[in-house]
Amino acid sequence: MSGLITRRGLLAGISALGAGAALSACGAKTGGDTSKAAGAKADTSGDTVRVGLLNSLSGTMAISEVTVHNALLLAVKEINAAGGVLGKQLKPVSQDGASDWPTFAEKAQALITDSKVVATFGCWTSASRKAVKPVFERNKSLLFYPVQYEGLEQSPYIFYSGATTNQQIVPALDYLKKQGLTKLYLVGSDYVFPRTANKIIKTYAKANGMEVLGEDYAPLGSTEFATIVNKVRSAGADAVFNTLNGDSNVAFFKEYKSAGLTAKKLPVLSVSIAEEEVKSIGTQYLEGQLTAWNYYQTTPGAANEKFVAAYRAAYGKDKPTSDPMEAAYISVHLWKAMVEKAGSFDVEKVKAASDGITFDAPEGKVTVDGATQHVHKTARIGKVTANGLIEEVWNSGGPIKPDPYLKGYDWAADL
Questions:
Q1: What is the DSSP letter of 412?
Q2: How do the residues of the chain divide into helix, strand and coil, expressed in percent and rounded to 5?
Q3: How far is CA 158 from the centre of its chain?
Q4: pLDDT tens, residue by residue, 188-219
């Protein structure tokens, strides 16, 4: 499996920086008959409408995506309890992407063609999103993508409810710079998000008096990090910027501690480790380490208290909430508001109604930017505590307008 993932990840990385042809072809191949698919229409004729949930319920990414799936189900349950959408109840249809990008494309096509869903919510890795992107575009069907990502993308049929680069990675770099942590070592999984994110980080560093001393990648699902950790330890860096995804983080942080590295000696700032991953990895390996997100379980506010209580009531009092879960949860509520503003499930009408849609989210008020189909979000840096939660140590003071192509940053002009 890891060999397949690595090859797909490399193809995804190439496509993200170029025209996307490699994965578009992959999506077309695994997504079924395109001529048949193009005529697929959502079924809104009955008292219920189907919504697609597309997550890795198995494989290396299940550590992160199962809880996102649960958060989506919670949102659907709440909406149904409040009367549904345009008087119709939502019927969730779940598909398992199985941590495999061609499978994601195949399952996306099944949701559109066979289940005739009105919208789909899901994906985590950028490789999975790149694989399904042509499927949703050729079918003119909507995907709501809930996870922070590397930016440099817009699709007319994807809404991005997680952070783009200027709402997570750039604020994280600003924070490290202000802390005097200017010598970085980059560690990531070998696919599109880490490779593109690290290209952006290196460009930022060059323009901001920072230095990248090393850069290493491991296949998704990799459990061998002795060589990488030894290189990190000997590099002379001030901090590690971590873009590992999935259960590879478990092996990395265990090896990190085994090598005598701690948050005090050499802090790691992670952009894909949230509360659920902290619990799975073990607090003893992560205490004091830094994260960059837009939401934490500890984020203050009545909306978050309600969300945390509802999630615990549904899935267990010891279950944490996290940024990707929250971004998934709000994506369903934002879609509902778009549909109701449009007065229709029609995709083009929903898109036209999206600009300015707001929601009192657990992370704070969020607003949809119709031009980019991204969301205004507050950036937050957190620190893992002994109790396994993440406490905020800095925030941007308010929502940041999404800038997926970093047009507002002179240093990013060549990206």
A1: G
A2: 45, 20, 35
A3: 13
A4: 999 999 999 999 999 999 999 999 999 999 99
